[in-house]
Specification:
The protein is mostly helical. Helix content is 76%, strand content 0%. The chain is built from 33 helices and no strands. α3 packs across α4 and α6 runs antiparallel to α7. The longest helix is centred in the N-terminal third of the chain and has 29 residues. This is Sel1 repeat family protein.
């Protein structure tokens, strides 16, 4: 340990000396010692001194870890200090600002490309052009001034050109449909847009052109009006503001006799938490024989404990259907059980909403939870009910809010911020998330601290994760109780093989050879199947840190044999 500490001090002092001498190459070589050796804690004091001396790469490195560890303002300041002369910092600043929704990001991507030919900056600029709806300009820019080795741009060029091709195909088919006044053809022309919707979140400017096509088709076809309405409600660029227009389109399609409009009105009202309206529209569609509406109406009645009505609608759906049989059995069980827990009782919703709208954050959270967990509401319509309690400091609400952002796959910076707030307030599942995030960024020391906090909640998975990272760090005595907990108390855990491998390793390192044999044998027998299969064979960093219980077992058995001879 003394040798390692002396090496750290020698390397750190050399890094600072190189920074003061303006020797960027040597400073980076010593920075790599800390980064590649996963000694971030030890490197931070030396990077801080190197930053004071003006070393650009130390700015970049320290900024990355400040951001990973949750101090985004400090990361931004570090990036900004040298972004004009260091393309990596220009890129890092651009990414951070983009995550914040700040349009200034484009300027720093531009500088990183023009001043340092940073290919990542060029790609981000191309993506921003596409995000603004400039589908023709994005590929042209990406293909301009390319050099050998710039192959990474082609993936994005192909994507944007393929979207342009699909849009042109839709436009041509709509031209033909309009010329023939053919509503069915107009509705069919929209189908390629359904597959493109997965790109609209990342490139919101595309929705402007797509909206034009939906509008043209909806002028000719009731079914296209329904598709147009769904597009409007799903679009992140229009959001809730588009709901009146979307609802009007659906009502118009319904009034024109398009049966599917009633069902979609039910679905969208249910997603919004408007259950009485949802029931009204489902009822109209179900009475007309719409199977999906019958099913949804049965589920809605069951959730409200209106069991007779629920049974009737499920039977309308089809008495021989396996899912119907399961629902009827579930209703029988609910009847026998009697009452329902407050957190599942939809009958509480009207009163909770009234209190929530009056400013009661606890009622708002309870209302949002019931909507999300038991009333079929869409995540995007639940955020506004959960957020007040999270803002007020409720760690459970903060965790649930982060989970909503994760499920929606949007605003990762907000997602991680809410996980962090919840974790810092002591929420053990949030601590696990922060551990995973730190481990993903190779900040293993920070990950270990989060897993230790997560393990305080009694989870054997978090105990294994904390013990594993301690074992990989060489802190075998610290790791032993965490890994022993899993080995002795959780024999059915999916992660027990991995815990056994590291438990045997630390027992070996602690000189407890006889005790190490059983866990190492258990781990070696199933290691490839239970552990290695979960990790990418291309992730060399993870593989280099992973234990080898078969090798450990051979060494232990050889040592024991030598003792007996």
């Amino acid at each position: 340990m003394l040798i390692v500490s002396q090496d750290i001090q020698t390397r750190g002092e050399a890094l600072v000396a190189a920074a003061r001498a303006d020797d960027a190459k040597t400073a980076r070589r010593h920075t790599d010692f800390f980064v590649l050796g996963h000694r971030v804690d030890e490197g931070i004091p030396y990077w801080e001194q190197a930053v004071a001396a003006g070393d650009a790469f130390s700015h970049y490195t320290l900024a990355r870890y400040r951001k990973i560890r949750g101090d985004r303002p400090a990361a931004e300041a570090l990036y900004r200090a040298v972004a004009d002369r260091h393309s990596g910092c220009a890129y890092g600043l651009g990414v951070l600002l983009k995550e914040n929704g700040d349009p200034e990001a484009a300027e720093w991507f531009r500088r990183g490309w023009e001043n340092g030919r940073d290919l990542n900056c060029k790609i981000e600029l191309g993506k921003l052009l596409a995000a603004e709806g400039q589908l023709d300009e994005a590929p042209k820019f990406l293909m301009s001034d390319i050099e050998l080795g710039d192959i990474a741009v082609f993936r994005w060029v192909q994507l944007f050109e393929s979207i342009r091709k699909e849009f042109d195909h839709v436009a041509a088919d709509l031209d033909a449909a309009e010329a023939a006044a053919d509503g069915d053809a107009a509705a069919a022309a929209l189908r390629p847009l359904f597959d493109l919707e997965k790109h609209f979140r990342d490139y919101p400017g595309l929705t402007v052109e797509a909206a034009g096509y939906y509008r043209r088709a909806s002028a000719l076809s009731p079914s296209a009006r329904v598709d147009h309405a769904v597009f409007l409600t799903e679009s992140e660029t229009t959001g809730d503001a588009a709901w009146p227009e979307a609802r009007a389109l659906l009502v118009q399609a319904h009034e024109e006799g398009y049966e599917g409009a009633r069902y979609i009105l039910g679905v969208l009202h249910e997603q919004r938490g408007d259950l009485s309206d949802a029931e009204h529209w489902y009822g109209l569609a179900a009475t007309g024989g719409h199977p999906a509406a019958q099913w949804h109406l049965g589920v809605l009645c069951k959730r409200q404990r209106r069991f007779d009505e629920a049974e009737r609608w499920f039977r309308e759906f089809g008495v021989d259907d396996e899912d119907v049989v399961a629902q009827l059995d579930r209703i029988a069980a609910l009847r026998e059980a009697g009452g329902t827990a407050p957190g599942k009782d939809l009958r509480r919703l009207p009163a909770l909403r009234e209190r929530a709208e009056a400013g009661d954050v606890h009622a708002s959270y309870a209302y949002g939870k019931i909507l999300c967990d038991w009333a079929g509401a869409a995540d995007r319509h639940v955020v506004r009910w959960i957020e007040p309690a999270a803002q007020a400091g409720d760690p459970e609400a903060a965790y649930d809010l982060a989970e909503l952002y994760r499920a929606m796959r949007r605003q990762p910076a907000l997602r991680d911020d809410w996980y962090r707030r919840s974790a810092e307030a002591g929420h053990h599942d949030a601590c696990n998330e922060m551990g995973w995030l730190s481990e993903h960024h190779r900040d293993y020391q920070e990950a270990e601290r989060w897993y230790v906090r997560a393990a305080e909640g009694g989870s054997s998975l978090n105990a294994m994760l904390a013990g594993k990272l301690k074992a990989q760090r060489g802190a075998h005595a610290e790791a032993e109780p965490y890994l022993r907990q899993v080995w002795e108390e959780d024999s059915d855990a999916a992660h027990r093989t991995e815990a056994a491998g590291y438990y045997g390793l630390v027992l070996h390192r602690l000189g407890r050879l006889t005790e190490a044999v059983e866990p190492l044998r258990a781990a070696a027998a199933k290691w490839d199947e239970d552990v290695r299969a979960r990790y990418s064979p291309d992730d060399l960093t993870v593989l280099a840190r992973t234990a080898d219980p078969a090798k450990e077992l051979a060494e232990v058995e050889a040592a024991l044999a030598a003792e007996q001879s």
